[in-house]
Amino acid sequence: MLTKYKNSTVYQIYPRSFCDSDGDGVGDIKGIISKLDYIASLGVDVIWLSPVYKSPNDDNGYDIADYKAIQPEFGTMEDFELLLSEAKARGINIIMDLVINHTSDEHEWFERAKAGEQKYRDYYIIKKGKDGKLPNNWGNFFAECPWEPFGDPANEEYYLHLFSKKQPDLNWYNPDVYREVVDIMKFWLDKGVIGFRCDVINVIFKESFANGKKHLALTGKEHYLSTDGCHNILAALRRDVLSHYETLTVGETVMVDLKEAADLTLPERGELDMVFAFEHMECDQIGVKWFKTKFKPKKLMRILTKWQEGLPWNSCYFENHDQPRSVTRFTKGGEYRAIGAKMLLGLLFSLRGTTYVYQGQEIGMTNGAFESLDEIMDIESHNVDEMAKGLGIINPFRWKLIKKTSRDNARTPMQWSAEENAGFTSGKPWLKLHPNYTEVNVERDLRDKDGVISFFKEINSFKKSSEIMKEGSFKELHRGKWVYVFERALDGEKLTVICNFKDKAVSYPMEQKGSRVLSNYEGEAKKLRPYEFVIIKNN
Ligand code: ISL
Prior knowledge:
The chain is globular. The strands form 5 sheets. The chain has an 8-stranded parallel β-sheet with strand order 11-10-9-5-2-1-15-14. A 5-stranded antiparallel β-sheet has the order 16-17-18-20-19. It has a 3-stranded antiparallel β-sheet with strand order 6-8-7, with no helix packed on it. The longest helix has 17 residues, at 175-191.
Protein backbone atom coordinates (compact mmCIF):
# COMPACT_ATOMS: atom_id res chain seq x y z
CA MET A 1 0.00 0.00 0.00
CA LEU A 2 1.68 3.10 -1.22
CA THR A 3 -1.09 5.54 -1.86
CA LYS A 4 -2.17 8.46 0.28
CA TYR A 5 -5.61 8.09 -1.32
CA LYS A 6 -6.34 4.77 0.33
CA ASN A 7 -9.15 6.09 2.50
CA SER A 8 -11.03 7.58 -0.43
CA THR A 9 -14.54 6.63 -1.38
CA VAL A 10 -14.41 5.84 -5.07
CA TYR A 11 -17.48 6.19 -7.31
CA GLN A 12 -17.36 4.43 -10.66
CA ILE A 13 -18.98 6.12 -13.63
CA TYR A 14 -19.85 4.17 -16.75
CA PRO A 15 -20.08 7.20 -19.04
CA ARG A 16 -22.40 5.69 -21.64
CA SER A 17 -25.08 5.13 -19.05
CA PHE A 18 -24.63 8.02 -16.64
CA CYS A 19 -26.14 11.22 -18.03
CA ASP A 20 -26.76 12.40 -21.58
CA SER A 21 -26.53 16.15 -22.17
CA ASP A 22 -27.22 16.29 -25.90
CA GLY A 23 -30.11 13.93 -26.52
CA ASP A 24 -28.30 11.27 -28.57
CA GLY A 25 -29.25 8.59 -26.05
CA VAL A 26 -25.65 8.07 -24.92
CA GLY A 27 -24.23 9.54 -21.72
CA ASP A 28 -21.42 12.07 -22.12
CA ILE A 29 -18.85 14.17 -20.31
CA LYS A 30 -21.03 17.29 -20.12
CA GLY A 31 -23.67 15.08 -18.52
CA ILE A 32 -21.16 14.01 -15.88
CA ILE A 33 -20.20 17.64 -15.24
CA SER A 34 -23.86 18.48 -14.67
CA LYS A 35 -23.98 15.86 -11.90
CA LEU A 36 -20.79 16.77 -10.07
CA ASP A 37 -22.63 18.59 -7.30
CA TYR A 38 -24.69 15.48 -6.72
CA ILE A 39 -21.58 13.27 -6.66
CA ALA A 40 -19.86 15.65 -4.25
CA SER A 41 -22.94 15.62 -2.01
CA LEU A 42 -22.49 11.85 -1.56
CA GLY A 43 -19.08 12.44 0.00
CA VAL A 44 -17.19 10.85 -2.87
CA ASP A 45 -13.46 11.64 -3.13
CA VAL A 46 -12.50 9.92 -6.35
CA ILE A 47 -14.32 9.15 -9.58
CA TRP A 48 -13.20 6.10 -11.53
CA LEU A 49 -14.13 6.87 -15.10
CA SER A 50 -14.63 3.85 -17.34
CA PRO A 51 -13.03 4.41 -20.77
CA VAL A 52 -13.79 7.70 -22.54
CA TYR A 53 -11.15 7.22 -25.23
CA LYS A 54 -11.86 7.08 -28.94
CA SER A 55 -13.27 3.66 -29.71
CA PRO A 56 -15.35 1.82 -32.29
CA ASN A 57 -17.32 0.53 -29.31
CA ASP A 58 -17.16 -3.18 -29.90
CA ASP A 59 -16.76 -3.56 -26.12
CA ASN A 60 -18.12 -0.16 -25.04
CA GLY A 61 -14.81 1.64 -24.96
CA TYR A 62 -12.63 -1.20 -23.67
CA ASP A 63 -11.43 -1.39 -27.28
CA ILE A 64 -9.36 1.76 -27.65
CA ALA A 65 -8.57 3.26 -31.04
CA ASP A 66 -6.70 6.30 -29.72
CA TYR A 67 -5.42 6.54 -26.13
CA LYS A 68 -5.03 10.29 -26.34
CA ALA A 69 -8.37 11.27 -27.84
CA ILE A 70 -11.87 11.46 -26.42
CA GLN A 71 -14.67 9.42 -27.94
CA PRO A 72 -16.66 11.99 -29.98
CA GLU A 73 -20.04 10.82 -28.66
CA PHE A 74 -18.73 11.58 -25.14
CA GLY A 75 -17.41 15.04 -26.03
CA THR A 76 -14.06 16.71 -26.61
CA MET A 77 -10.72 17.02 -24.86
CA GLU A 78 -11.87 20.48 -23.68
CA ASP A 79 -14.90 18.84 -22.07
CA PHE A 80 -12.62 16.35 -20.37
CA GLU A 81 -10.36 19.09 -19.06
CA LEU A 82 -13.37 20.96 -17.77
CA LEU A 83 -14.56 17.80 -16.04
CA LEU A 84 -11.18 17.47 -14.35
CA SER A 85 -11.08 21.05 -13.14
CA GLU A 86 -14.74 21.13 -12.06
CA ALA A 87 -14.26 17.89 -10.17
CA LYS A 88 -11.09 19.19 -8.49
CA ALA A 89 -12.96 22.37 -7.53
CA ARG A 90 -15.29 20.11 -5.56
CA GLY A 91 -12.47 18.15 -3.97
CA ILE A 92 -12.92 15.18 -6.29
CA ASN A 93 -10.07 13.49 -8.14
CA ILE A 94 -10.35 11.27 -11.18
CA ILE A 95 -8.78 7.95 -12.05
CA MET A 96 -9.07 6.62 -15.57
CA ASP A 97 -9.33 3.15 -16.97
CA LEU A 98 -6.02 2.01 -18.39
CA VAL A 99 -6.63 -0.75 -20.91
CA ILE A 100 -3.24 -2.06 -21.96
CA ASN A 101 -3.73 -5.75 -22.52
CA HIS A 102 -5.17 -4.95 -25.93
CA THR A 103 -6.06 -2.12 -28.29
CA SER A 104 -8.87 -1.86 -30.79
CA ASP A 105 -8.19 -3.40 -34.20
CA GLU A 106 -9.00 0.10 -35.43
CA HIS A 107 -6.02 1.56 -33.54
CA GLU A 108 -3.47 3.04 -35.92
CA TRP A 109 -0.86 0.56 -34.64
CA PHE A 110 -2.93 -2.42 -35.71
CA GLU A 111 -3.87 -0.82 -39.01
CA ARG A 112 -0.22 -0.19 -39.80
CA ALA A 113 0.61 -3.73 -38.75
CA LYS A 114 -1.98 -5.02 -41.19
CA ALA A 115 -0.54 -2.77 -43.87
CA GLY A 116 2.70 -4.66 -43.44
CA GLU A 117 4.84 -2.35 -41.29
CA GLN A 118 7.15 -4.63 -39.32
CA LYS A 119 7.52 -2.13 -36.48
CA TYR A 120 3.79 -2.33 -35.74
CA ARG A 121 3.46 -6.05 -36.39
CA ASP A 122 5.76 -6.40 -33.41
CA TYR A 123 3.24 -4.50 -31.26
CA TYR A 124 0.91 -7.48 -31.44
CA ILE A 125 1.09 -11.21 -30.87
CA ILE A 126 1.15 -12.82 -34.28
CA LYS A 127 1.90 -16.52 -34.53
CA LYS A 128 1.99 -19.16 -37.20
CA GLY A 129 -0.50 -21.99 -37.36
CA LYS A 130 0.43 -25.26 -38.94
CA ASP A 131 -1.39 -27.46 -41.42
CA GLY A 132 -4.70 -25.82 -40.68
CA LYS A 133 -4.13 -25.93 -36.93
CA LEU A 134 -4.23 -22.87 -34.68
CA PRO A 135 -1.04 -21.76 -32.85
CA ASN A 136 -2.33 -23.27 -29.60
CA ASN A 137 -5.44 -24.52 -27.80
CA TRP A 138 -6.16 -21.47 -25.66
CA GLY A 139 -9.61 -20.21 -24.70
CA ASN A 140 -11.01 -16.68 -24.76
CA PHE A 141 -12.82 -14.52 -22.17
CA PHE A 142 -15.63 -13.72 -24.60
CA ALA A 143 -16.32 -17.27 -25.78
CA GLU A 144 -14.60 -16.71 -29.14
CA CYS A 145 -11.66 -18.44 -30.71
CA PRO A 146 -8.68 -16.35 -29.47
CA TRP A 147 -6.83 -16.63 -32.78
CA GLU A 148 -7.99 -14.63 -35.78
CA PRO A 149 -6.33 -14.90 -39.20
CA PHE A 150 -3.88 -12.07 -39.76
CA GLY A 151 -3.59 -11.05 -43.39
CA ASP A 152 -3.73 -13.61 -46.16
CA PRO A 153 -5.18 -16.87 -44.74
CA ALA A 154 -2.77 -18.82 -46.95
CA ASN A 155 0.06 -17.58 -44.70
CA GLU A 156 -1.56 -19.29 -41.72
CA GLU A 157 -0.77 -16.37 -39.47
CA TYR A 158 -3.01 -15.48 -36.58
CA TYR A 159 -3.16 -12.70 -33.98
CA LEU A 160 -4.03 -13.39 -30.37
CA HIS A 161 -7.07 -11.78 -28.75
CA LEU A 162 -8.09 -12.91 -25.28
CA PHE A 163 -11.22 -10.76 -25.61
CA SER A 164 -13.14 -9.86 -28.80
CA LYS A 165 -11.49 -10.22 -32.18
CA LYS A 166 -11.63 -6.44 -32.35
CA GLN A 167 -9.34 -6.35 -29.29
CA PRO A 168 -5.93 -7.68 -30.41
CA ASP A 169 -3.56 -8.35 -27.49
CA LEU A 170 -0.44 -6.22 -27.24
CA ASN A 171 2.98 -7.79 -27.32
CA TRP A 172 4.58 -6.92 -23.99
CA TYR A 173 7.87 -8.49 -25.06
CA ASN A 174 8.35 -5.42 -27.22
CA PRO A 175 10.03 -2.47 -25.42
CA ASP A 176 8.28 -0.09 -27.84
CA VAL A 177 4.92 -1.16 -26.42
CA TYR A 178 6.23 -0.37 -22.93
CA ARG A 179 7.45 3.05 -24.11
CA GLU A 180 4.08 3.84 -25.70
CA VAL A 181 2.26 2.99 -22.48
CA VAL A 182 4.65 5.09 -20.40
CA ASP A 183 3.91 7.97 -22.72
CA ILE A 184 0.13 7.46 -22.48
CA MET A 185 0.22 7.30 -18.68
CA LYS A 186 2.27 10.50 -18.46
CA PHE A 187 -0.08 12.23 -20.88
CA TRP A 188 -3.06 11.73 -18.57
CA LEU A 189 -1.19 12.19 -15.28
CA ASP A 190 0.17 15.49 -16.61
CA LYS A 191 -3.39 16.56 -17.34
CA GLY A 192 -4.20 15.97 -13.69
CA VAL A 193 -5.78 12.55 -13.29
CA ILE A 194 -4.46 10.88 -10.16
CA GLY A 195 -4.18 7.33 -11.33
CA PHE A 196 -5.61 4.34 -13.06
CA ARG A 197 -7.83 1.34 -12.76
CA CYS A 198 -5.74 -1.10 -14.72
CA ASP A 199 -7.92 -3.34 -16.84
CA VAL A 200 -7.17 -7.10 -16.69
CA ILE A 201 -3.66 -6.12 -15.72
CA ASN A 202 -2.57 -9.54 -14.51
CA VAL A 203 -2.97 -11.11 -17.97
CA ILE A 204 -0.83 -8.71 -19.99
CA PHE A 205 2.37 -10.77 -20.09
CA LYS A 206 2.15 -14.17 -21.75
CA GLU A 207 4.99 -16.26 -20.42
CA SER A 208 4.70 -18.92 -23.07
CA PHE A 209 2.42 -19.81 -25.95
CA ALA A 210 2.37 -23.52 -25.32
CA ASN A 211 -0.87 -25.46 -25.19
CA GLY A 212 -2.69 -25.11 -21.89
CA LYS A 213 -4.31 -27.47 -19.45
CA LYS A 214 -7.93 -28.15 -20.39
CA HIS A 215 -10.25 -25.69 -18.65
CA LEU A 216 -13.98 -25.04 -19.00
CA ALA A 217 -13.44 -21.60 -20.55
CA LEU A 218 -9.88 -20.38 -20.24
CA THR A 219 -7.57 -23.12 -21.37
CA GLY A 220 -4.05 -21.69 -21.31
CA LYS A 221 -4.56 -19.28 -18.41
CA GLU A 222 -1.59 -20.72 -16.49
CA HIS A 223 0.62 -19.19 -19.18
CA TYR A 224 -0.48 -15.62 -18.58
CA LEU A 225 -2.02 -15.13 -15.11
CA SER A 226 0.14 -12.96 -12.81
CA THR A 227 3.40 -13.97 -14.48
CA ASP A 228 6.85 -12.78 -13.44
CA GLY A 229 6.91 -10.74 -16.62
CA CYS A 230 3.77 -8.93 -15.49
CA HIS A 231 5.31 -8.20 -12.08
CA ASN A 232 8.38 -6.77 -13.80
CA ILE A 233 6.35 -4.50 -16.04
CA LEU A 234 4.33 -3.17 -13.12
CA ALA A 235 7.45 -2.47 -11.09
CA ALA A 236 9.00 -0.70 -14.06
CA LEU A 237 5.90 1.45 -14.57
CA ARG A 238 6.12 2.44 -10.92
CA ARG A 239 9.78 3.34 -11.29
CA ASP A 240 9.45 5.18 -14.60
CA VAL A 241 6.06 6.83 -14.21
CA LEU A 242 3.99 6.46 -11.08
CA SER A 243 6.72 7.27 -8.56
CA HIS A 244 6.97 10.75 -10.08
CA TYR A 245 3.37 11.60 -9.14
CA GLU A 246 0.99 11.06 -6.18
CA THR A 247 -1.19 8.30 -7.53
CA LEU A 248 -3.83 5.69 -6.85
CA THR A 249 -3.60 2.47 -8.85
CA VAL A 250 -5.98 -0.42 -8.64
CA GLY A 251 -5.46 -3.48 -10.75
CA GLU A 252 -8.35 -5.49 -12.08
CA THR A 253 -6.86 -8.91 -11.49
CA VAL A 254 -8.87 -11.81 -12.78
CA MET A 255 -8.68 -15.12 -10.95
CA VAL A 256 -6.09 -13.97 -8.41
CA ASP A 257 -5.63 -15.85 -5.21
CA LEU A 258 -4.47 -14.34 -1.93
CA LYS A 259 -0.81 -14.99 -2.60
CA GLU A 260 -0.88 -13.35 -6.05
CA ALA A 261 -2.89 -10.41 -4.75
CA ALA A 262 -0.36 -9.92 -1.96
CA ASP A 263 2.56 -10.13 -4.38
CA LEU A 264 0.98 -7.56 -6.70
CA THR A 265 0.49 -5.10 -3.85
CA LEU A 266 3.50 -5.61 -1.58
CA PRO A 267 4.83 -2.09 -0.90
CA GLU A 268 8.43 -3.24 -1.22
CA ARG A 269 7.77 -4.52 -4.73
CA GLY A 270 6.16 -1.21 -5.64
CA GLU A 271 3.70 -2.56 -8.19
CA LEU A 272 0.02 -1.73 -7.60
CA ASP A 273 -1.60 -0.02 -4.63
CA MET A 274 -4.45 -2.51 -4.51
CA VAL A 275 -6.33 -5.02 -6.61
CA PHE A 276 -9.89 -5.97 -7.42
CA ALA A 277 -10.13 -9.66 -6.60
CA PHE A 278 -13.06 -11.71 -7.87
CA GLU A 279 -13.55 -14.60 -5.50
CA HIS A 280 -16.48 -13.01 -3.64
CA MET A 281 -18.14 -12.23 -6.97
CA GLU A 282 -18.01 -15.93 -7.71
CA CYS A 283 -19.84 -17.01 -4.57
CA ASP A 284 -23.06 -17.76 -6.45
CA GLN A 285 -21.71 -19.66 -9.43
CA ILE A 286 -20.45 -23.10 -10.37
CA GLY A 287 -17.36 -23.06 -12.56
CA VAL A 288 -18.13 -20.16 -14.87
CA LYS A 289 -20.22 -17.11 -14.09
CA TRP A 290 -23.08 -18.15 -16.41
CA PHE A 291 -23.96 -21.07 -14.16
CA LYS A 292 -25.44 -19.27 -11.21
CA THR A 293 -26.51 -21.17 -8.13
CA LYS A 294 -28.78 -20.12 -5.32
CA PHE A 295 -27.09 -17.38 -3.33
CA LYS A 296 -25.93 -18.64 0.04
CA PRO A 297 -24.92 -15.72 2.28
CA LYS A 298 -22.64 -17.95 4.30
CA LYS A 299 -20.44 -18.55 1.29
CA LEU A 300 -20.10 -14.82 0.64
CA MET A 301 -19.23 -14.32 4.32
CA ARG A 302 -16.59 -17.03 4.19
CA ILE A 303 -14.87 -15.46 1.19
CA LEU A 304 -15.08 -11.92 2.59
CA THR A 305 -13.48 -13.09 5.83
CA LYS A 306 -10.79 -14.99 3.95
CA TRP A 307 -9.76 -11.85 2.04
CA GLN A 308 -10.18 -9.48 4.96
CA GLU A 309 -7.98 -11.64 7.15
CA GLY A 310 -5.63 -12.75 4.42
CA LEU A 311 -4.69 -9.51 2.69
CA PRO A 312 -3.49 -6.35 4.45
CA TRP A 313 -5.65 -4.08 2.29
CA ASN A 314 -8.61 -4.84 0.02
CA SER A 315 -10.46 -2.96 -2.72
CA CYS A 316 -13.97 -3.51 -1.45
CA TYR A 317 -16.70 -3.69 -4.06
CA PHE A 318 -19.98 -5.46 -4.71
CA GLU A 319 -20.76 -3.92 -8.09
CA ASN A 320 -19.21 -2.64 -11.27
CA HIS A 321 -20.10 -2.45 -14.96
CA ASP A 322 -19.44 -6.19 -15.44
CA GLN A 323 -21.45 -7.58 -12.53
CA PRO A 324 -25.18 -8.00 -11.96
CA ARG A 325 -26.60 -5.57 -9.38
CA SER A 326 -25.91 -6.58 -5.79
CA VAL A 327 -29.39 -5.92 -4.49
CA THR A 328 -30.84 -8.37 -7.04
CA ARG A 329 -28.10 -10.86 -6.45
CA PHE A 330 -27.73 -10.88 -2.69
CA THR A 331 -31.22 -9.93 -1.41
CA LYS A 332 -34.82 -10.86 -2.18
CA GLY A 333 -35.43 -7.35 -3.53
CA GLY A 334 -39.09 -6.36 -3.94
CA GLU A 335 -40.34 -4.78 -0.73
CA TYR A 336 -36.87 -5.33 0.76
CA ARG A 337 -34.99 -3.61 -2.04
CA ALA A 338 -34.17 -0.40 -0.19
CA ILE A 339 -33.45 -1.94 3.19
CA GLY A 340 -31.39 -4.68 1.53
CA ALA A 341 -29.44 -2.13 -0.50
CA LYS A 342 -28.63 -0.28 2.72
CA MET A 343 -27.51 -3.44 4.49
CA LEU A 344 -25.15 -4.26 1.62
CA LEU A 345 -23.78 -0.70 1.63
CA GLY A 346 -23.34 -0.90 5.39
CA LEU A 347 -21.39 -4.13 5.03
CA LEU A 348 -19.31 -2.80 2.15
CA PHE A 349 -18.24 0.36 3.96
CA SER A 350 -17.50 -1.58 7.15
CA LEU A 351 -14.94 -3.83 5.51
CA ARG A 352 -11.29 -2.92 5.85
CA GLY A 353 -10.05 -1.36 2.62
CA THR A 354 -10.85 1.25 0.00
CA THR A 355 -14.57 1.41 -0.75
CA TYR A 356 -15.65 1.36 -4.40
CA VAL A 357 -19.27 1.95 -5.38
CA TYR A 358 -20.81 1.85 -8.81
CA GLN A 359 -23.26 4.42 -10.19
CA GLY A 360 -26.82 3.62 -9.11
CA GLN A 361 -25.73 1.48 -6.18
CA GLU A 362 -26.47 4.47 -3.96
CA ILE A 363 -30.18 4.24 -4.84
CA GLY A 364 -30.35 0.45 -4.91
CA MET A 365 -30.74 0.04 -8.67
CA THR A 366 -31.68 -3.49 -9.71
CA ASN A 367 -30.77 -5.80 -12.59
CA GLY A 368 -32.18 -4.74 -15.96
CA ALA A 369 -35.67 -5.86 -17.04
CA PHE A 370 -34.68 -7.40 -20.35
CA GLU A 371 -37.15 -9.67 -22.08
CA SER A 372 -35.02 -11.16 -24.84
CA LEU A 373 -31.52 -11.18 -26.24
CA ASP A 374 -32.55 -8.51 -28.78
CA GLU A 375 -32.63 -6.02 -25.93
CA ILE A 376 -29.09 -6.86 -24.82
CA MET A 377 -26.19 -4.96 -26.38
CA ASP A 378 -23.19 -6.56 -24.68
CA ILE A 379 -20.92 -8.50 -27.01
CA GLU A 380 -20.10 -11.03 -24.30
CA SER A 381 -23.76 -12.02 -23.88
CA HIS A 382 -24.25 -12.44 -27.62
CA ASN A 383 -21.11 -14.53 -27.95
CA VAL A 384 -22.08 -16.76 -25.07
CA ASP A 385 -25.51 -17.28 -26.61
CA GLU A 386 -23.84 -18.35 -29.86
CA MET A 387 -21.51 -20.70 -28.08
CA ALA A 388 -24.31 -22.23 -26.03
CA LYS A 389 -26.34 -22.67 -29.20
CA GLY A 390 -23.37 -24.51 -30.68
CA LEU A 391 -23.33 -26.79 -27.67
CA GLY A 392 -26.96 -27.65 -28.30
CA ILE A 393 -28.37 -25.77 -25.32
CA ILE A 394 -31.95 -24.85 -26.17
CA ASN A 395 -33.23 -21.35 -26.03
CA PRO A 396 -35.40 -20.82 -22.99
CA PHE A 397 -32.48 -22.17 -21.01
CA ARG A 398 -29.86 -20.02 -22.77
CA TRP A 399 -31.89 -16.90 -22.15
CA LYS A 400 -32.36 -17.82 -18.51
CA LEU A 401 -28.59 -17.92 -18.02
CA ILE A 402 -27.94 -14.72 -19.92
CA LYS A 403 -30.76 -12.72 -18.37
CA LYS A 404 -29.39 -13.35 -14.91
CA THR A 405 -25.74 -12.75 -15.63
CA SER A 406 -25.43 -10.38 -18.59
CA ARG A 407 -23.18 -7.41 -17.92
CA ASP A 408 -25.94 -5.19 -19.31
CA ASN A 409 -27.77 -5.72 -16.01
CA ALA A 410 -25.48 -3.10 -14.53
CA ARG A 411 -25.35 -0.90 -17.62
CA THR A 412 -28.96 0.25 -17.83
CA PRO A 413 -29.18 4.04 -17.80
CA MET A 414 -28.86 5.81 -14.49
CA GLN A 415 -32.27 6.60 -13.02
CA TRP A 416 -32.30 10.27 -12.14
CA SER A 417 -36.01 11.05 -11.90
CA ALA A 418 -39.50 9.80 -12.73
CA GLU A 419 -39.57 11.96 -15.85
CA GLU A 420 -39.51 10.50 -19.34
CA ASN A 421 -36.42 8.31 -19.84
CA ALA A 422 -35.62 8.65 -16.15
CA GLY A 423 -34.06 12.06 -16.76
CA PHE A 424 -31.13 10.24 -18.37
CA THR A 425 -31.71 11.52 -21.91
CA SER A 426 -34.17 13.50 -23.97
CA GLY A 427 -33.58 11.03 -26.81
CA LYS A 428 -33.80 7.27 -27.07
CA PRO A 429 -31.59 5.54 -24.48
CA TRP A 430 -28.91 3.33 -26.04
CA LEU A 431 -29.93 0.50 -23.70
CA LYS A 432 -33.37 -0.27 -22.33
CA LEU A 433 -34.20 1.56 -19.13
CA HIS A 434 -35.52 -0.35 -16.20
CA PRO A 435 -39.23 0.48 -15.96
CA ASN A 436 -38.92 0.72 -12.19
CA TYR A 437 -37.33 4.16 -12.69
CA THR A 438 -40.64 5.78 -11.74
CA GLU A 439 -40.09 4.40 -8.22
CA VAL A 440 -36.34 3.96 -8.04
CA ASN A 441 -34.65 7.22 -8.92
CA VAL A 442 -32.30 9.77 -7.41
CA GLU A 443 -34.84 12.58 -7.15
CA ARG A 444 -37.36 10.49 -5.26
CA ASP A 445 -34.76 8.83 -3.09
CA LEU A 446 -33.37 12.21 -2.05
CA ARG A 447 -36.84 13.39 -1.01
CA ASP A 448 -37.25 10.38 1.26
CA LYS A 449 -35.62 10.79 4.64
CA ASP A 450 -35.26 7.00 4.72
CA GLY A 451 -33.84 6.91 1.21
CA VAL A 452 -30.89 4.73 0.33
CA ILE A 453 -28.82 7.84 -0.44
CA SER A 454 -29.25 9.24 3.05
CA PHE A 455 -27.98 5.94 4.49
CA PHE A 456 -25.12 5.98 1.98
CA LYS A 457 -24.09 9.44 3.19
CA GLU A 458 -24.37 8.37 6.80
CA ILE A 459 -22.22 5.24 6.53
CA ASN A 460 -19.74 7.02 4.26
CA SER A 461 -19.22 9.91 6.65
CA PHE A 462 -19.12 7.51 9.60
CA LYS A 463 -16.29 5.61 7.97
CA LYS A 464 -14.42 8.81 7.23
CA SER A 465 -14.77 10.01 10.81
CA SER A 466 -13.76 6.73 12.45
CA GLU A 467 -10.15 5.67 12.73
CA ILE A 468 -11.34 2.18 13.66
CA MET A 469 -13.31 1.88 10.41
CA LYS A 470 -10.39 3.19 8.39
CA GLU A 471 -7.40 1.57 10.03
CA GLY A 472 -8.76 -1.01 12.45
CA SER A 473 -8.18 -4.72 12.22
CA PHE A 474 -10.85 -7.15 11.06
CA LYS A 475 -11.96 -10.24 12.95
CA GLU A 476 -14.88 -12.49 12.19
CA LEU A 477 -17.04 -13.14 15.24
CA HIS A 478 -19.89 -15.15 13.74
CA ARG A 479 -20.77 -16.66 10.42
CA GLY A 480 -24.25 -18.17 10.36
CA LYS A 481 -26.71 -19.16 7.69
CA TRP A 482 -28.04 -15.60 7.62
CA VAL A 483 -26.11 -13.47 10.04
CA TYR A 484 -22.59 -12.15 9.69
CA VAL A 485 -20.84 -10.51 12.63
CA PHE A 486 -17.36 -9.08 12.66
CA GLU A 487 -15.28 -6.77 14.71
CA ARG A 488 -13.15 -3.83 13.73
CA ALA A 489 -10.64 -2.85 16.40
CA LEU A 490 -7.95 -0.27 16.94
CA ASP A 491 -5.95 0.58 20.06
CA GLY A 492 -8.34 -1.32 22.34
CA GLU A 493 -11.45 0.32 20.86
CA LYS A 494 -13.93 -1.92 19.11
CA LEU A 495 -16.88 -1.77 16.78
CA THR A 496 -19.09 -4.79 16.14
CA VAL A 497 -20.76 -4.96 12.73
CA ILE A 498 -23.85 -7.13 12.29
CA CYS A 499 -25.59 -7.93 9.00
CA ASN A 500 -28.78 -9.93 8.58
CA PHE A 501 -29.13 -11.41 5.10
CA LYS A 502 -32.62 -12.81 5.74
CA ASP A 503 -35.94 -11.26 4.74
CA LYS A 504 -37.30 -12.24 8.19
CA ALA A 505 -36.46 -11.41 11.75
CA VAL A 506 -33.76 -13.63 13.24
CA SER A 507 -32.25 -13.88 16.70
CA TYR A 508 -29.02 -12.14 17.53
CA PRO A 509 -26.34 -14.82 17.43
CA MET A 510 -24.64 -13.48 20.53
CA GLU A 511 -25.27 -11.10 23.36
CA GLN A 512 -24.67 -7.48 22.45
CA LYS A 513 -22.85 -5.18 24.81
CA GLY A 514 -22.50 -1.55 23.93
CA SER A 515 -24.41 1.16 22.16
CA ARG A 516 -25.83 1.21 18.64
CA VAL A 517 -24.04 3.87 16.65
CA LEU A 518 -25.48 3.30 13.20
CA SER A 519 -28.21 1.18 11.66
CA ASN A 520 -30.52 0.94 8.67
CA TYR A 521 -33.48 0.73 11.11
CA GLU A 522 -34.83 3.13 13.71
CA GLY A 523 -34.72 2.10 17.35
CA GLU A 524 -33.96 -1.33 18.67
CA ALA A 525 -35.80 -4.65 18.59
CA LYS A 526 -35.37 -7.96 20.39
CA LYS A 527 -34.44 -9.67 17.16
CA LEU A 528 -32.55 -8.56 14.09
CA ARG A 529 -35.13 -7.29 11.61
CA PRO A 530 -35.16 -8.26 7.89
CA TYR A 531 -31.85 -7.17 6.33
CA GLU A 532 -30.95 -5.25 9.45
CA PHE A 533 -27.51 -3.74 9.60
CA VAL A 534 -26.10 -2.36 12.79
CA ILE A 535 -22.80 -1.12 14.16
CA ILE A 536 -22.34 -1.40 17.90
CA LYS A 537 -19.68 0.46 19.80
CA ASN A 538 -18.22 -1.73 22.52
CA ASN A 539 -17.26 0.30 25.52
O1 ISL B 1 -17.24 -9.99 -16.63
C1 ISL B 1 -16.29 -10.65 -16.26
C2 ISL B 1 -16.22 -11.23 -14.91
O2 ISL B 1 -17.41 -11.45 -14.35
C3 ISL B 1 -15.12 -10.90 -17.09
O3 ISL B 1 -15.19 -11.87 -17.98
C4 ISL B 1 -14.57 -9.60 -17.63
O4 ISL B 1 -14.60 -9.55 -18.98
C5 ISL B 1 -13.19 -9.49 -17.09
O5 ISL B 1 -13.36 -9.27 -15.73
C6 ISL B 1 -12.39 -8.38 -17.70
O6 ISL B 1 -13.04 -7.17 -17.60
C7 ISL B 1 -12.45 -6.01 -18.08
O7 ISL B 1 -11.85 -6.17 -19.34
C8 ISL B 1 -12.71 -6.45 -20.43
C9 ISL B 1 -13.91 -5.53 -20.48
O8 ISL B 1 -14.86 -6.05 -21.38
C10 ISL B 1 -14.57 -5.37 -19.13
O9 ISL B 1 -15.64 -4.48 -19.20
C11 ISL B 1 -13.49 -4.92 -18.18
O10 ISL B 1 -13.99 -4.62 -16.91
C12 ISL B 1 -11.86 -6.32 -21.68
O11 ISL B 1 -11.24 -5.08 -21.70
